[in-house]
């Protein structure tokens, strides 16, 4: 299927690895001019180099921390007029809410709620003026099925979800859609690191912990990043113009509810 977005320009955040990189890869394959953003220059430069030889689209990169005004300004000083925005940030650490300070909460809200809102604010009016825009926020399946130990993530991402629910209805008539993509467990370096930490807390090997998790998973496997990346690319396509204000859960059926 031709997604109809060749030649469009996209900003993909957290794009040096994992799910952000998978989204960038899927967009570049469709001929999109993708600007990769992440904090660390080395992995970002390497990711851009790899993508440039893999897909049909142009690839640029900007090393910047999008949770800061300075970082966002650096991106928009180098590039403007984005047709597609993919926001993405690593989730805050797990733990017991009794141990979290006000500063912990502010950091979580900055990264997982306020930074995406600032990026949307910087791009959505231009998208409406040009009559086309796609905004996809990578959040978490925990928005739909909260976990106690992920309280920082639950709270911050739920705030972004509520904001999007209001804004999305006001922009779609001008050709702009805003949706959230909710990943479950995907086979990334971050998942491996989290599982190793949880295994140490439980006093078992990482392999045993992983096997226990897989045994409880309906799909008996974790998701592959490219599965999410291609879903993201579809939400950015011309074919998804009537999908708006939605929370698209991609978790292999882990969520047990009907809705």
From TrEMBL:
Gene3D superfamilies: NAD(P)-binding Rossmann-like Domain (3.40.50.720)
Transmembrane intervals: none
Matching CDD domains: BKR_like_SDR_like (cd05344)
InterPro entries on file: NAD(P)-bd_dom_sf, SDR, SDR_fam
Family: Belongs to the short-chain dehydrogenases/reductases (SDR) family.
Protein name as catalogued: SDR family oxidoreductase
Organism, as annotated: Ramlibacter rhizophilus
Organism lineage string: Bacteria, Pseudomonadati, Pseudomonadota, Betaproteobacteria, Burkholderiales
């Amino acid at each position: 299927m031709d997604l109809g977005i060749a030649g469009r320009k996209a900003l993909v955040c957290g794009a040096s690895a994992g799910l952000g990189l998978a989204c960038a890869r899927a967009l570049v394959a469709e001929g999109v001019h993708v600007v990769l953003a992440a904090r660390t220059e080395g992995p970002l430069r390497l990711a851009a180099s790899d993508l440039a030889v893999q897909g049909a689209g142009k690839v640029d990169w900007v090393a910047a921390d999008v949770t800061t005004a300075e970082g966002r300004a650096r991106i928009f000083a180098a590039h403007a007029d984005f047709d597609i925005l993919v926001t993405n940030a690593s989730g805050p650490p797990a733990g017991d809410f009794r141990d979290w300070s006000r500063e912990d909460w502010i950091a979580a809200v900055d990264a997982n709620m306020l930074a995406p809102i600032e990026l949307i604010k910087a791009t959505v009016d231009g998208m409406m003026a040009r009559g086309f825009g796609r905004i996809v926020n990578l959040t978490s399946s925990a928005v739909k099925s909260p976990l106690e130990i992920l309280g920082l993530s639950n709270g911050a991402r739920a705030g972004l979800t509520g904001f999007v629910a209001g804004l999305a209805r006001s922009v779609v008539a001008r050709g702009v859609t805003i949706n959230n993509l909710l990943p479950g467990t995907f086979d990334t370096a971050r998942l491996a690191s989290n599982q190793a930490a949880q295994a140490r807390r439980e006093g078992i090997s990482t392999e045993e912990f992983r096997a226990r998790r897989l045994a409880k998973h309906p799909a008996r496997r974790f998701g592959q990043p490219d599965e999410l990346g291609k879903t993201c690319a579809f939400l950015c396509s011309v074919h998804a113009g009537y999908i708006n204000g939605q929370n698209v859960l991609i978790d292999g059926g882990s969520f047990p509810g009907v809705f």
